[in-house]
Amino acid sequence: MLKMEVDVKKENKIQRKVWRGKRSRLTLTLHPDIERVLRQTATEQKLPMSVIADEALYAGLKEMGRV
Q: What is the number of structural domains in the chain?
């Protein structure tokens, strides 16, 4: 099984870059390892999982040059 490790400093909150106003919803299924990392990060940062998922997806798309 793939082991993923997250090195997140508790004092460094994620800088939000995604607009969170009223918008359409997307439902999807995530790999359990990805879900675990998102949940762990959300707990550590004391933010909703949806915020963490938005920011992670945005960062990945930006890195790929899609945003």
A: 1
